[in-house]
Amino acid sequence: MTAAIDRMNLHLRQSGAVPSSRKSKRQRLASLIAATGGLRILERLPQQNCLVVLNYHRIGSPSDTVGDPNLYSATPSDLEEQVRWIKQRYHISTLDEAIAFVEGKTTLRKAGILLTFDDGYKDNYDYAFPILHKHRVEGTFFICTSYLGSSQLPWWDQIAFMIKTSRNSKVVLNYPEPLTLDLDDGKLQALNRLLCIYKTKHNLDKDKFLREIARSTGTGDERPCERIFMNKAELKEMSDNGMAVGSHTHSHPLLSHLSPELQLEEVSLSKQMLEQDLGIEIQSLAYPVGAPDSFNEHTQEALRRAGYRIAFSFHGGKNIAGKTSCYNVRRHHVGVTDGNALFKVRTSTAAVLGAPLF
Question: Domain check: are 211 and 71 in the same one?
Answer without folding.
Answer: no
